[in-house]
Write a structure and sequence with these properties.
The chain is of the alpha+beta class. The chain is 16% helix and 37% strand.
Length: 695
Amino acid sequence: MLRYWYLLLILLWATQASAAQSSDYSYVIENDWIALPDGVRLSVSYYKPEAKQTGETFPVLLEMLPYRKDDISRTWAHPYYDYFARQGLALAKVDIRGTGSSEGIAPTREYSETEINDAIDVIAALAELPWSNGNVGMWGISWGGFNAIQVALRNPPQLKAIIAAHASDDLYMNDVHYTDGVLGLDEYVLSINHMMGFMQSPEYTIDDSYFTNRFDREPWLFDYLRHNQDGEFWQAGSLKYQLDRVRIPMFLINGLLDGYRDTAVNSLESLHTPIRAVIGPWPHAWPNSAVPGPSWEWREEATRWWQHWLTDSHNNDSFNGQSFRFFLRSGNPPITSLENIPGSWHESSWPLPIAESNSLLLYPNHNQSLTTTVTGQVQTDSLELNNAVGHELGEWWGELLPDMRRVDASSLVYDSEPLTAVLQLVGKPEVSLRVTTSSDKTNWLIRLEDVAPDGKVTAITGASLNGQLRSSTLNPEPLPVGEQITLETPLHFSTWTFQAGHRIRLAISNGLFPMVWPSPEHINSTLVINSAASRLELPLWEHGTVSDVINMPPALASASLDPQLAGFEAVPDANTRNEVFENKLDGSVSIIRESAVGYRVSNPHGVNNSIRIHTLRSTEHKTHRDDPAKTEYRARAEYRLLPMSDAEDEIRYITEIDLNSDTEIFDLSVTRTLYEGTQILRQKNWQETLPRGIH
């Protein structure tokens, strides 16, 4: 009997799925140009639903990126474009001016004034298309979310709403360049500085226009190092400093394993426009395909969001206010590979009305400890900079991480007693430290961790603190050497369940390499303990019960690639490397990472299964235990255009970055080289010595 009902349910589901599929829109993909007022044409790929009735028009969703829509990123977004187009939403995928297939001069930086102005012109053009209903939404993940937020600050009349996933509200303190106000260089720095100098697709023409508009343009890293402290350069595109301009509804998606996870709660705290904020267990990926999961079929809700704001239906009153959903992690062991993170979904207003703060003070005993009260005299703990440890933390405050015990061995750690009850953390922990330091340039790296009964340590969240920015990011002040000062900082938003029997740990160090570029000199610092000035404040949510749990629909299977796209696919290369090398002779430590990927064109010029573009990347971070000022970043990226016939030569485009520091300066060199076969067609080198400033 149970089998009968099971089969009946399957049949009913299949019937409903078939009916839903048959009601989907068909669509076509068209490549075209959007002409800007100055005559430059931007390359656009349209996903156009086919009208079911005469005169039917559609909202248009815009995504603008520099990531080369017709080759290197050609297949990335197809499952999302396919999904939305089948729901009757038109889409426009645009290469930013001077990138990919678009014309014009390559931009001078990320989210340049030119890029944002172009986006406003593109939105106006999309609204005038004969098959457009005049309403435009802007969306994207990472870069696409960044520029969607920045365009929304301008409030173009045709832009009715945005969706921004894994994007930042503060381009200085909450981006990859100076996270929390400290310098960090990762693989992205190499990739983006390399990509900006590549040829225009799909012809890959090598001529004077290419050299002038792309190859010979100064790499962005120079400008970022020139602007090594906060100011107008960064604030012009930062939501945090323009809150009064926001009127457009925002759907914000963040991930607990992503570096930009604070944007959603920051916006809920500061904005009054309609906001739908979701923070899940994900890394820097869309929630339907993120690993680890659990996945979420966000495209269903996004479709309702677009239909509400971009059509005349306005059929969902819940979108008119503000909502907050978060994934409460139940706790997992330190592991770098996990299919699904254990936990549950909850919904609330923000700030959480049932949140309360639990204050834990740093207290001395044989292992140091966290306690709710202190007795006796104030004491101090000493900390010496170890600039060569910390690679286990990765390159930003996110990701699944291994056991932290090795990193903690070079840190000051403070543990609570084993917990007698479950504690649920939801929010941004606050840390106050009473410190002294031997250097006026000192960073503190603070981590909140979970210590299991078996001794394994899981990182939960953390933050970097540049001591010179203790009062203001705009007005840095050197630290007073040898004087006691109090530093206060929030850690990045997180959720976590401390299980009974586990301990809460606060870990503190003055260096984490390569996440943070080391301070220029040896540092000896002290931490005042057994004092209310050094404490951890935990926002605890004590009323999460089964009745609070909500359901989030799991991801649907993504569509197979359209025939127009199936001819281009990424082919992972097995030649990857990720290792730490310690040189006992000179005391240096290097973190070396290498990766490669190919892009296969199935049928170019009648040749099947050939590789058209092959990419290779390598980075090396190197520092010296005895001389932290002597730190290096060396990186190399290469695109190979492989010949389609014996009559053609291989084209190789290479970017090499070499950044070195001493106590006062950064010495930066970037070289681009273009080969045809073994012949150098073009080579250009940029060099500059820049002051370290507050780093």
